[in-house]
Design a protein that fits this description.
Helix content: 40-55%
Radius of gyration: 29 Å
Number of strands: 24
Structural class: alpha+beta
Length: 737
């Protein structure tokens, strides 16, 4: 998009650089910050710079709780205070940290809480690749990336024409820096898995800092292309130039290098340690979002659209009717209204801001608007959103509405219980007290609470009632809706006589470990182009290397297998067809797993043939064949990712399980030989292929096909079909409910 000159003037590269400046309180007084900086200088001054930085980067990887002290040591070392001759080692860093604690005992207060384990492998999807995360000091690092994704959607159309880069480019720099450092850590320690990273992390050796000092023929830092010789375009170069901070500026930082991402040291551009990257990205994301917001009002509108879509996607998993947007006669446009059951209405307003002040102002405005949503008020629905049909089912003696003056208008009925929820996205300093009345919750917290609701949705609605009323309490201090949700799930109430006033918060370490356990499924979903786990209203726990995700509106149910990597989608119209396609999908999944786990013989040879032809994850979808079809299952098409299979609906099926099993093998034989032949001939584009002809003309494809057929024929047919009806994974019924 192009901006008129009058709108583009407020933002410039120089102004953007000025946002890095941090006002230091008590500039003319000796402060604790000065004491920490002095202790850090005295610790590193006898050591050589490169070895000192290598030791600090190494220790910071697994010592997130000590990052406040490590950042002071790092800042002084980057500024050139490490000018001695001694080689530093990780053991020296431990001595430095002890010296800082003795000199400034206050730092221990910031370093007590346990942090998430960075060695657990958790990936996020960014720039069409999967990237490993380092959690740093954050409790929910994935949500930071998701919020940055929304910021990029909102701000980049404004920033790119003016600055030449956007928030997405800055995040790309950050995830590449983390991937590189993880590769070095894996090579040095030998105990961290680098598999399935999305980017191929080459084995690193030698000094991380020395490698980061290298530049290529184009003057681009070599680490920015690594691992995997990644592309660097003009936008990324502009983002690098903007993110660079001088080492002297970083040395004066007061907290975690004040959000620095890249630091210039002796004509080299170094990324900050991986443990500080997400903190830096969050800081820079807020800065750039604010700049875009001051430049164009479209930024806030874009952010609101992204936030409302994220809210609606999670709401599809709740047992509720939802209409939106709606117009209230006294309060204007609202995001929507939810109607879980009977005469209960939850009025929702999603608000955003591009800076903390704007977000707080919009949140307060939303509270006042929602206050006007009362019994007897009329709500007008947006016809274009298809709300008229949904509204009809809610108007009646048992519903929350009575008929209004027009077909798209309804009046909130008497005795309807109205709750009001403000969902906030954007930079926001949330209140430290929870009071009765309107519920304020961040978008990320709302999505997490809704995801945790599972199958007991009544518990979720009861929690909203309790949070809105706070029975027996005037307020709750030092809590958030997310921590209160944990208390409510554990105790059944927010407070009663005999309960401890200090309730434990969420078990973030367990949640992080669970996310690492599900990481292989996240990678498979992203590789085939489906949404990640957090974007599905339903996500089961893994059982037998298999995980189910789904949603009810519109109905979609997918089963994800980690090894071998495949997904099959169940979205047939009738419940009977859904059950049968799940049986077929499970038969395929269990059959291929049987080949993959074989260590020798025909089964192992069959797996070698299959994995050579189909090395990447695939998605299997099913389509009902017309009446009169001869085969119970047949291959319809393959586009490189999605396998389209046709099936005879169970009402018309006469084939035995053995026949179905054999025809599944025939379908995948066709897929295997045609894929290998197309690869050998380097053909592209859509075309119709006769598998028998291809096998006759291509010896390699024919031999691979025969090996697969022999292996598939040896799989136990009866056991395969019996296992598909296991009661341990009743995913179809749960999702359909």
């Amino acid at each position: 998009m192009s901006l008129p000159p009058s709108m583009a003037m407020p933002i410039s590269l120089e102004l953007a650089r000025n946002t890095h400046q941090v006002n230091t309180p008590y500039a003319d007084r000796w402060s604790t910050v000065d004491e920490l900086a002095l202790a850090a200088r005295q610790s590193v001054r006898r050591f050589e710079l490169i070895s000192c930085l290598n030791a600090l980067y190494d220790v910071s990887w697994a010592s997130a709780r000590q990052l406040p002290s490590l950042s002071f040591l790092l800042g002084q070392a980057l500024a050139g205070e490490a000018a001695g001759e001694r080689d530093a080692r990780p053991g020296d860093v431990a001595d430095w940290l002890q010296a800082i604690r003795r000199r400034v005992p206050l730092v221990d207060e910031y370093q007590q809480a346990a942090r998430l384990d960075p060695d657990l492998l958790v990936h996020v999807f960014w720039d069409d690749r999967m990237w490993p995360l380092h959690p740093g000091m954050l409790d929910d690092p994935e949500q930071v990336v998701e919020q940055l994704r929304r910021y990029a959607v909102a701000a980049d159309p404004v920033l790119v024409p003016v600055l030449g880069f956007g928030i997405a480019d800055v995040v790309t720099i950050g995830v590449r820096a983390v991937a590189l450092q993880r590769a070095f850590q894996a090579d040095r320690r030998g105990g961290m898995s680098n598999g399935e990273d999305g980017v191929q992390a080459h084995p690193a050796s030698g000094s991380l800092i020395e490698f980061c000092r290298e530049v290529d023929a184009e003057g681009v830092p070599a680490w920015l292309r690594s691992p995997g010789d990644l592309p660097v375009d003009d936008r990324l170069r502009a983002a690098v130039a903007w993110c660079i901070r001088d080492a002297s500026d970083v040395a004066g930082s007061t907290w975690l290098l004040d959000g620095a991402l890249l630091v210039r040291v002796q004509d080299a551009v170094l990324p900050v340690p991986a443990a500080l990257v997400l903190d830096a990205l969050a800081t820079i994301g807020v800065q750039l979002l604010s700049l875009a917001g001051r430049t164009s009002g479209a930024t806030a509108s874009n952010l609101l659209d992204a936030a409302e879509r994220a809210f609606a996607s999670r709401g599809r998993g709740l047992a509720t009717h939802f209409v939106g947007p709606v117009q209230c006669a006294r309060s204007g446009r609202l995001t929507g209204a939810m109607f879980p059951a009977g005469r209960r209405l939850i009025a929702v307003q999603v608000v955003v801001g591009t800076n903390e002040r704007e977000t707080a102002r919009e949140a307060d405005r939303a509270r006042r608007r929602l206050a006007a949503v009362k019994v007897g008020e009329a709500l007008t629905m947006d016809i274009s959103a298809g709300n008229a049909e949904r509204l009809a089912s809610l108007v009646g003696p048992d519903g929350p509405f009575t008929p209004g003056a027009a077909a798209t208008t309804a009046v909130i009925a008497e005795s309807t219980v109205v709750r009001r929820v403000v969902i906030v996205d954007g930079p926001w300093n949330a209140p430290d007290k929870v009071r009765p009345g309107t519920v304020f919750v961040t978008l990320d917290a709302w999505r997490q609470i809704a995801a945790d609701a599972g199958e007991d949705h009544e518990e979720f609605w009861a929690f909203l009632d309790e949070l809105a009323e706070l029975p027996g309490l005037r307020m709750i201090e030092g809590a958030t809706p997310l921590t209160l949700w944990e208390t409510f799930q554990r105790q059944g109430v927010l407070f009663n006589t005999g309960m401890s006033l200090n309730q434990p918060g969420p078990d973030v370490a367990r949640r992080w470990a669970n996310r690492a356990e599900c990481d292989p499924y996240e990678i498979v979903l992203r590789c085939i182009g489906l949404p990640g786990l957090h974007d599905w209203p339903f996500a089961a726990t893994p059982i037998d290397w298999c995980l189910t995700v789904g949603q009810t509106t519109p109905y979609e149910h997918a089963v994800v297998n980690a090894d071998p990597p495949l997904v099959f989608v169940v979205n047939a119209d009738s419940a009977e067809d859904r059950q049968w396609t799940q049986v077929l999908g499970d038969a395929i999944r269990i059959g291929l797993t049987g080949l993959a786990t074989a260590t020798a013989g025909d089964l192992a040879a069959g797996w070698l043939a299959w994995s050579t032809a189909i090395p990447d994850p695939i998605c299997i979808t099913f389509y009902a064949l017309p009446a009169g079809a001869e085969e119970a299952v047949k291959l319809l098409a393959f586009d490189g990712i999605t396998v389209h299979l046709g099936y005879i609906p169970p009402a018309n099926l006469t084939a035995t399980p053995s026949m179905v099993h054999r025809q599944l093998g025939d379908a995948f034989w066709c897929l295997l030989v045609t894929t290998l032949a197309a690869r050998d001939q380097q053909t592209t584009g859509s075309r119709i292929v006769n598998a028998a002809t291809v096998a006759a003309e291509n010896d390699d494809a024919r031999q691979a096909g025969e090996a697969f057929q022999r292996a598939w024929a040896q799989l136990p047919v009866t056991a395969t079909f019996r296992r598909t009806s296991s009661a341990r994974r009743p995913a179809t019924r749960a999702v359909a409910a």
